[in-house]
Batch of 4 targets.
Target 1
Amino acid sequence: MRGHLSHRLPQAISGSLLFLAVLCAAGCQSRSEYFGKVDPPAGNVLRFNNGVEPEYIDPNLLAGVQDARIAGMIFEGLTVYDERDLHPAPGAAERWEVSSDLTLYTFHLRKGAVWSDGHPLTAHDFVYSWRRILDPKTASRYASMLYYIENGEAFNVGKVKDASKLGVRALDDYTLEVKLRQPVSYFLSLTAHETYMPVPAHVVERYGDRWTDPSHIVGNGPFQLVEHRTNDKFEFIRNPRYWNSAGVKLDRVTAYSVDDNHTAANLYEAGVVDWVPDYIPSDYMGYMRGRFKDLYTPPYLGIYYYAVNITRPPLNNPLVRRALAMGFDRRAITGDLLRAGQIPASHFVPVGFPNYHSPPGPDYNPPEAARLLAEAGYPNGAGFPSVTILINTLSEHRKIAEAVQEMWAKNLNIQVSIRNEEWASYLKDRRSMNYDLARAAWIADYPDPSTFTDLMEGNNGNNDGGWKNPGYDRMIALARQQPEESRRMEILEKAEALLLHDLPVIPVYTYSADGLIKPYVRGVYGNALDRHALNRVWIDRQWKTGRPKSGDEL
Amino acid sequence: MIRFILRRLVLSIPVIFLIATTTFFIMRLAPGGPFQMEKAIPPEIMANLQAKYGLDQSLPVQYGRYLRNLLHFDLGPSYKFPDRTVNRIIGEGFPVSLELGMAALIFALLLGIPAGVISAVKHRGFVDHLTMGIVLIGISVPTFVMGPLLILVFSLTLFWFPPGLWGTFRQMVLPSITLGMLYAVYIARLTRAEMLEVLQQDYIRTARAKGLGQFRILWKHALNGAMLPVVSFLGPAIADLATGSIVVEKVFAIPGLGRFFVDSAFSRDYTVVMGTVLFYAVLLILANLVVDVLYQFMDPTIEYR
């Protein structure tokens, strides 16, 4: 026995040494202003982590944020977002005219613009693309983004068979006329969205489903895709035929498809990638915030909320819903748990729309919540039926649900349980109303509050909690016909007030767009849609001594 | 011998058919489908999407079509990544997993065999205890702890190796060690146990009596005899290593095949689930066959019919 003991000693020592080495390393690193290595790449190259492997890079078919980021490099819409304030700027169209009733848009395309294979880019390409995305046979899941176009919806669901009845036509090679079914003041933002980007008819028709293969794909955007390996990366070079190629500063871009957020953070820390636009592990936030200059957390146009199935008792009682909404402290969730830039929200439309002001929602107020619950017939939680929160499997959702669960137990003396399901089962249960309360989220498709208020219309497929309020639907319809902007915002604000009165949703917080960006990556600007054009991005080799980043630069 | 191989191959056909059938129907029991997303899809669009991929037909019809395509080695398009076929996904992912698996195996052999030999030679000595202590740690520490630990020390503190991605030699080092460690310690233990037995044998004593040097005795005489159980361990180990490891592939962001086993099930990517399961089944059947054949060469007393 004695002998054994003495033999184990060296192992114990080496083990402790290893641990000390790790501790020391962590200690040494924390002195830096930046997270990990700061070492610019050789050449005008940007390496960033795009996140989970995109499903589609075809602009007509894509649905995910990661898909859109790749497509946005290869293609360009009629308009592009100005990154700083999200106002639409000229893209493939150099100018446009809008009728006073906001229903007729005429776009003038750049003469001489070509696809990356030299084929001319004309208004007919846009007609082809928009017909394709709305064609029922294409079965695009995001086609509803084009329902604003006259007959768009009817054609998409098969009620109108003739594609020429769609409100889009090429007056000549360089003039595109778009007729809308309603006044849409934000249509020029929609034309910057990926779903409105053109696809090359001559390539799509030739290669079918395989046209997005790097050996076939042709685009009209600033970069050209040269290599793609599933779950690994996309490689781009500058597109020399892009109309503003001279303005593009990067020669190459690599977009990695690393879907594990700790691995992504590791790659950033080791200096293998220069930018991680999201995918920051939430357990790093407490440590990183305020310590590193390369972490950014601006607000993001997205809302985290609990959908309420209002057909089930006790949640069919509005008093109960109000009590629940007032019975937990959102600041505890954003401030103590998530600790990035999230903003507590008791209203449904996130903060960040300049001309829109959400009405006040049900804020944290435990005594009032307890009173409402008593009024609903459950004094001090007595007799409160069992209620379950449905979440999809992810540790953050669980942490948030547990915090809410604990606060409801403390403030209202009610016990709720948590049920977690993997993604596909969760979606199925939500769509079939097989839940009491469900974690839900919505991210803006375009910078207008209607992207949120439309969601709760009675016939909207995303409104899956059984709530249907004719007054609300009337207001949403009224807002659609209103060409006057400030008047439209007023109507939407009133609609949201109604929503916050009925509470078929319990808002929790407004998202933040968290990311890490090396100090030498310049020309990336923060905005509420977290959309970034890489055209103007450049690598600053004099980052230590040169001009510092401006305030809105990330 | 050839008859034996042919017989085994023919017998494996109903096995594969059974696996294909079971997987096909079990998979469809899971709720949801491959095209759902958080944003609701109009029912008309969903119907068109289902029709586009033939998912609107009855299950027996789909099953029949699947089997017909399978006969032509066509595993169909992925539903989640419709611009890629399952054949392409396997064709891209498998070589990476194979590369990782073989690198891990080489590491395991290079570490395991010498460690086992040294332990046996210095039996009950300090080196033996130290080696077997490390072996114990190697067995006890799972890959999801080993990987991040190696990254912390060698990538984020010493900056010797990148913490992920795949392609260069430096990128291969840490994942190979992570994946190979468990195999290395098994091999070390197997080698040590066999060596201890072999070193007691008369012919080793004879060799020593002849005055041969220690190295020559170990290398020429003892090791040969001790390798048999190691080789039989390698058969299933290779099949196991070649099909990839979900944990190591996630931690090190390696674009291998292993992650598809899990990811495709979650995304209800039916064709990819089928493809990876069948591919793995065929690989296992072949690996077992190779081992059985090798046995006969190594030990002529085993006879097959």
Target 2
Amino acid sequence: MTDWQAVAAALQAPIQPEDRVSAIAPLERLERAFRPLQQNIPLDTPLWDATPLWGGPVESSPIQSGEAQPE
Amino acid sequence: MTIAEIGRALRERKISVVELTKETMRLIAAASGLNAFITVTEEAALARASELDRELARGVDRGLLHGIPIAHKDAFYTRGVRTTAGTKILERFIPSKDADLVTRFRGAGTVMVGKTNLHELCHGITSNNPHYGAVHNPWDVDRIPGGSSGGSGAVLAADLVPLATGTDTGGSIRIPAAYCGVVGLKPTFGHWSCRGVVPLAFTLDHVGIMTRTVRDAAIAFGENPASPEIGGPEIQPRPSGRGFEINDLRVGVPENFFFDRLDPEVAASVRHAIQTAAALGARVTEIRLPDPDALNTVARLIQLAEASTVWRRYQDRREDFGPDVFALLQQGLVIPATDYLDAQRVRTLLARDFAKIWESVDCLLAPVTAITAPRIGEMAVKIDGADEDVRLASTRLTRPFNVLGWPALALPCGLSKNGLPIGLQIVAAPHREKILFELGSALEDALGFASRCQPRP
């Protein structure tokens, strides 16, 4: 299993030590459920096709531009 | 009132759009304790109503939604009107364009009366928003309305408007529909564009609608039921006089997963609805589904990673996030790219397996949630003597259909002993929404929930 503590600490902007407990326990549960599914994927399995009608951003918003800053 | 009833009153000149809008504003003000709106747009709504009245006077009728009040979830961009997505980060964001779905409903003649409160970033199911306050459930104001489209659910349950928009990434339309005793439609993935909606998870997000009745949902979707009671310029009644037919519809009832660990009252109410469908002529059969829990696993992984890509640039502003949402965003940051991509590949395999069920059934019937609306602040509930996280008890039966992209309709099917609504969901193959309306309207009539049950004043 993944050492999530180490991963959380090694991020470019690391997860703060006080936040790691609440972040890591759910990840451990998720990993236990996901690894068995992951093990048997055939080599040629493509990604799920998510492109159909999603049309892209309607305009440049604070989310895209990073303009939303505190006063 | 329903869209159908309002439409009739408008066309018979019993009420004008301006009068209707003024009355809606009065109701919204009277129900301010629900905290269901973040922004109310009274001035713009009245101006728009006046314009629509002038159109009707000139003989211009845009159809069944002409003059209908609508509330948009505050995740939809609205030109010139603040759009927060329930986050402090966007508290001053005023879009210069409308979301595609807002444009669609504006063109159909609706009158936007405001923007509804929601779970922060749409990333949760309580609508207990740390920045804009908790939304209260009209059936019991100490309880959550569900979420993330909780404000939309509450304004419908309180009968403030007949139509609201919502978004659904893991159940965020259907869960508040169930907890508030109203109807929620998550159409097929991609049926309506998500353009102009603040994203949560790009490959799971759906936009949809919430109404008080299934027929209203059909009208808003554009699938008009041919009911003589509705009338209007686009509709001709069928000879039978019924809206839709369900004779010989093949209804599948999952024998695994969807009836495990349910509140007994939820199970009984949904079973009763299934028996009702059979009595109405549907061919009901039990069906074993491949592995719904695997769908939930890949959905959670995908949602965590995708949401964190959207909001990563703000992770240094911890004080601007609620603790539950911040924890989820932190989790998404550490998921390896290879795990995310493998989750999308597992999704491909699961989708292939699940699609085979449409060879033997036309739709599925299942509960929306394992429980009725929890109390505000309640983190865990007891089911069959075991504690379960409120979020999981609310989402584990809805999330699978976001992964598959299948259309799903939530409608009320009964009340618990303590007077809380119980929700049923009908699920169909991609682009078969008409089946949802056929079975949903038949069950709505037979169960009589909409006409019989109202929240306490």
Target 3
Amino acid sequence: MNRVINARLASVLGLFFTTAVSAQGSIISNAFNPAISLILDGRFASFENDAEGYELPGFMSGGEAGLGAEGFSVGHSELVFSANIDDQYYGQFTAAIADHGGETEVELEEAFIQTLGLGAGVTVKAGRFFSGIGYLNEQHMHAWDFADAPLVYRGLFGDQLRDDGVQVRWLAPTDVFLELGAEALRGERFPAGGAANDGKGAFAAFAKIGGDLGASHSWRLGLSHWRADVVDREAGGHSHGGAAEEHASFTGDSAVSGIDFVWKWAPGGNATEHSFKFQAEYFLRDEEGDVTVIAHGATDEGRYDGTQTGWYAQAVYQFMPRWRVGLRYDALEVDNDVDDAHVAEHAGLDAEGHTPERWSAMVDFANSEYSRLRLQFNRDESYADADNQVLLQYTMSLGAHGAHPF
Amino acid sequence: MKQWMLGIVFGLCAFPAQAAVNVFACEPEWAALVAELGGARVSVYAATTAQQDPHHIEARPSLIAKLRRADLLVCTGAGLEVGWLPVLLRQSANGRVQPGRPGYFMAAETVERLEVPTVADRALGDLHMEGNPHVHTDPRRLLRIAEALGERLVAVDAANGDHYRARLGDFRARWQQAMDDWSRQAAPLRGMRVISHHQDWVYLYDWLGLVEVARLEPKPGIPPSAAHLSSLTATLEAQPARMVLRTPYQDARPGQWLASRTGMQVVVLPYTVGGSPEAGDLFALFDDTVARLLEAAP
């Protein structure tokens, strides 16, 4: 297994370096190659509590949920290939290479094609992509302003919602930005599961509206909805000190609704020296179905009907060229009803009378558009034992100049 | 839901086409040039102002909405807008302005560019592999771009071809006359030694024969550092320069600091249309640029 992965890694990297060298000789010979960028991400993390004991009580966690490794570690190294395929299509491929439990894994993070102008403001995207719901969800993690995901993204989506499927967007022909979108998705990945309905298990829809106020202010407001028929969704992130051998899974209906807002300011629209960004998102998840717990060799089932809500708000201020400071607040609330207390406890659905919240502060320095160093402090009250966390992170990009969405 | 969306889509297709050609110009100089060549037959929107750094623009929702309806996109190209224009293009859902289409016009790609790097290494700063993109600061190149843009307007709106050809002819005559005047007025500037903030004026120097001694940015795109500025004071003792030039959107402090220690003058040039109260159109832009240089010259 490992050898296969290494061979794959070598061939992917080989391709990257061949292109880079040929790019030195002449830019013309490189003109038809895809734009390639490699994101290097690494960090040092210090936690007061044991990272293995991390949990979000009341959430059946999955995906990437968790704190990550303590001490020195490399995060997601991403290799991004993108290009216009012809005059009608654009394509993008992102491979994430990360260590999980001591093994290097190559993960297909994104692989999609997108139309470039069907007419009438319609864009179709197909393949594997980050869902258009919310604000942060569509952005790559390395473009986020904090080193970790908001708690509500961690709890509901396992950091980020992405799936295989088709997305259709329609952009209104108006001066005010108005975009409507819908997605039909496979529904195999967390927070869905089982690829129900013959591999059409999840559905998403979103609306975004935005504009400017003078030359200095711009804003965007979004509404989103996601729902899935969930079959045997495993809860992977929950543990009790990493000791007990136990499994929990959920089958039923899951629906998430959300609202997101972002506001950006720069004097006269010139962000050379100062700029400010405020963003906030709120999500509500409704779930109903059956939970199965296998613990200590015994299988138990329970009926579950729950609501989890969460929000965060953050502000980032660029106080001089290249330097920014940021503050973020996170909060979650859980109202779960499980007819079997034993099932609730082992599935992680018992809120334990706790309301998770977190304060984060960060300062970052970008020497150029291609490099960033960040220091972040979290006062994390995800569960009953409050944790003080310090993260020191670098995010650097090699190769093609990335263009950042709003 | 889907039927409802399709209903809106087809409803909009039925709207009559607008009379004027909708032009989305990335920078004010191209908006001004389109207005010169198109007159009343075009409706032009400038995505940025002279007070904004065209390298660093947010891909704002309002810009996406504007590009959605454009018939023609006029930008500098050569990597100047690489941080934001690709996002606008992909989100605009507008096939008319995608690369390779008649509605996609990159001004810098129609003229010879200076400072094309021979080595691609980011240790040398934020290089544009296509060469220096600030081509509009040379009026000779601007005229060649006007000719290419005039042809493009004819291609996009063939029904009004004669209108664009006539306006181009008129613009060419007035511009050549103005260039003769500027060249004559600016003759005393030839050989004058200057310092620039970024590499914004390479083409202006090429035209007027100014000599660039150094730049405030240690590397392209890297803000001036205290260490670099100190080293410049030493350079300037050996090789004095007359003035420090910057654009309206650049940080004023590094230039002022250096000027206060070396006896140079800081001159803010309009850089583009709207960059000074006087620079109301392309003719006034160069009138004002030459006037400001002459005023600070010995």
Target 4
Amino acid sequence: MNKKVLSALLTGVMVVSLSGCGSAPAETKTEEPAKEEAVAEETTEVAEEAAEEVTEEASTEEIKDEATATADEPGGDETFTIGYAQRATDAAYTIAIKERNQEYAKEHYPNLQWVETDAQGDVATQAANIEDLISRGVDLIMVSPLTSDGLTDAVAEAMDAGIPVVTMDREVDTSVTVKVVADNKEMGVMAADKLAEMMGGKGNVIEVCGTTGSSAAIDRQAGFEETIASKYPDIKIVDSQDCDFNSAKAASYMEDMLQKYGEGEIQAIYCHNDPMAEAVAETVVAAGRDNEGILITGMDGEEAAFQMVENGQMAFTIIYPTMSPEAMIAAYNVLTKQPQDEVVNCIPTLVSKENVAEHLGTGLQ
Amino acid sequence: MNSAKKEKSSKKWISEMGTLWALITLCIVGAFVSPSFLKGANIINVMRQISINGIIALGMTFVCLTGGVDLSVGSQVAVYGIMIAQMLKNNISPFIAIPITLATAILIGFLNGLGIAKGKLAPFIMTLGSMTALRGLSKYISNGSPQNWRATGIDIKFIGQGYVGFVPVPVIIFLIMFFIGFYILKYTWFGRSVYAIGDNREAARLNGINVEKTQLICFIITAFVSFMSALVLTSKLSSCDPTAGEGYELDALSMCYIGGISTMGGVGKISGTLIGACLLTVLSNIMNLVGINSYMQNIVQGLIVIFAVLIGGISAKKK
């Protein structure tokens, strides 16, 4: 595409969004709207021509809609705009972080507006999205960073611009207003302790690992293996393999393991996430080995896993917290200038046969 | 022309026999390093593992023989798997869900083929695009989450986990598809057209072969095998991940090339693909039994592809 048309188009999008911000009644920043309007007048003509012919129009529409929504909001309460920088929408978990926090906000904080971006799993896109949110002048940014390395600069930029940032799940390497975290290592420790208790302190375990190098896999492995090594000398991790958090890979690996280890030689299978645990459970049944009482455990808190815990195919799973509503409450406290801790630690929950009833229906879909 | 043909056929022969010897050697090594390897149960297990990727490799053989490539098969597996899983989840009968998915597969294969045959796009480009688009589609329709239908009580496990006698159903599906593929390539006009196009497209056209139609059908075949693979995989796990099938296109291509299918097309046999599929799956089975790290497994698999094709080429030149 011609560079001129492209730049005109981008200007168009920018102008409409900026004027959208300007017309919001509760905008706190007083200087910027004036500036924006000046820019807007200069570029409107070019922008309107360009916007008509290209698909970018769709996003322009969205922004317009948002602007009207903001305008319809009843005066009284102060309105805040939260920029939400989603890292990806290809996993139930990342979707749950966003939806659960937003649902909580809908119920409790009607005076919040959302501007959402989705990086679709790309670090550079997420960094650029955060920069866009800064330019849009949102009041606070909620972000679940893809990686610390790639997002640190963009988050620092937001903080420098005076926009408070709440990070969720993963962290960045710069100071943020609030970080909401959960401890994967703690989950590994919990799994080891509970499994040891169920195994009577002895037996063989196979570990089905997540993607090597991912922080979740590293911590879930370290917490588990260190606890077993230090506290339970009669429990042995006889085999382990990176199955990439992928159910098909876990199933195929387990088929091989069931060949390698005969009846009574496996007491437990510790999996780094629920989809792998579910696949492993299916494989054990398919191989006719489900009468040996092999304890299969997962992590994350999928609804399907809860059902398997209930019907005895899985021993337990540990819910990795979805940072909700903790992140939302923290963000609101920051916006309304109420006291807020800098670090919020969400506690993982172990779901076994004893307490599965109270969790059924709340799992990740 | 004549000597070139001879060279090609000797290359094919050596490569196929070479792969067979490699497979036999590997099995002997396997028997020594792991006591479980030669047990009947493990052999059945390996055969079942061959079927999921092997089914795709069978279809890929047709496309490769025309000198093309289909990169979209892995993404297609995810789309079809997710479709089946999601329909069953909504309590739609498998007798409706599976045919609908099959129809979708044929349509997608048709569109791939149309872009290549009529749109004159390079197969690499067309399927690179559809690979990306279909992966997006699988994530879009599943909202990015794994889909399962365990709550509905619908049971199609027989396809992925069942047995007829002591032979797993996926293995039966795989073998039937192998023999059909073998028959088509060897004894039908269509099969000879596939070879002729890969050998020399213009000559084939002059000989009255409908090049476009043949190409188009080849891509419907890869869509069909992706569908079959998705059906086996999904019913085996009672669920489907939107990331399912990632890398299957490369597995299938590796199996074809190791089995002696020429990257230029026109040369190779589907029986070679079968041996290639066995070789890669046995290798991964042995490495799992011995407890070799999965990264190391990737390194070994990659090197084997390179050396298999390299040795095939050197042997042909020596001749």
